[in-house]
Design goal:
Layout lengths: L1 H7 L3 E2 L5 E7 L3 E2 L12 E2 L2 E8 L4 E5 L3 E9 L2 E6 L5 E6 L10 E4 L4 E6 L5 E9 L8 E2 L2 H7 L4 H6 L4
Antiparallel strand pairs: 1-2, 2-5, 3-4, 5-12, 6-11, 6-13, 7-10, 7-12, 8-9, 8-11
């Protein structure tokens, strides 16, 4: 199933882990002057990707400058860990079993550190992510475990487990 999805949707390895494919980039451009502080140029108003994570893999802690809306498609539950600016850790269960606290859609706010992994009982998770203002790798920051644990020592075990640097 995983290799079928990779082939069917022409997914590529993602720097944070898993596989992805951009499937939408708005033609509407937001100029830099209209964006929040911190953007270094114009951005598309919205982008969307497919994202696939298999059991035993994870999406490393990272942050972006825009809100990211996650959508569940198929597979089993995905756990999304979000550390907000105040150090509060939230767990989102993305999936299709509402009786188990899972949701079909959730938003990770801009500038929050987040990581994800398949739930223990999951073989794979196939999801989508929509970003507004549109995603640009210039707005992407991959966490370094040492630095992130200095900022959020209460979450050091999770951070060390879900960082690649």
């Amino acid at each position: 199933m995983i290799s079928d999805l990779v082939a069917q949707f022409q997914l590529l390895p993602h720097p944070e882990g898993g596989f992805y494919k951009e499937n939408y980039r708005s033609n509407l451009i937001i100029n830099k002057q209209s964006l929040p502080i911190g953007f270094d140029g114009d951005r598309n108003s919205s982008t969307a990707i497919y994202f696939l994570l298999e059991k035993g893999n994870f999406s490393a802690f990272h942050r972006i400058k825009s809100d990211e809306c996650w959508h569940f498609y198929t597979g089993q539950a995905l756990l999304i860990y979000v550390i907000d600016k105040n150090g509060q850790l939230d767990l989102i269960k993305l999936g299709n079993n509402s009786n188990n606290g899972e949701v079909f859609q959730a938003v990770v706010p801009a500038d929050c550190w987040f990581a994800s992994e398949p739930a223990p009982e999951s073989n794979f998770c196939f999801v989508g992510c929509t970003v507004s203002q549109g995603f640009d790798f210039k707005d992407f920051e991959l966490a370094k475990a040492t630095e992130l644990t200095e900022d959020y020592p209460a979450h050091k075990t999770l951070i060390r487990r879900l960082c690649r640097q």
